[in-house]
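Input/output pair, single chain:
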Amino acid sequence: MVERRTRARRVPEPESFLPLHPLEFRVLLVLLESPSHAYRIVKEIEAREPRPTVYPANLYRRIRDLLDKGLVEEQAPSREEASGRPRTVLRASELGRRVARLEAKRLETLLADARERRLLGRA
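Output:
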């Protein structure tokens, strides 16, 4: 992982996280819209995917990895959320936003190559 130094700690370069696992990218896309808990993340992914099978163990492993990498952060629950069942609310970190943007650009380049080779029609 490429890193650059700041005063007290090393900050990973966003490029060092690429390529993202597809589920990690999907989680970040949901969290870029608004902070959320895991159940809502699954529902958002399932609403957008043609084959929306998101297994809980896989999702929670990916969320743990995103937390460990610093791409998502836990957020304090709102009063409404705190009064109900306790849920961990997540949001994309600033680093997560930068990484998601770079991943989208990387995928856009791959799609352009696929279109050039006539694997996909023009959208």
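The helical segments are 22-33, 38-48, 56-69, 79-83, 94-116. The mean pLDDT is 87.
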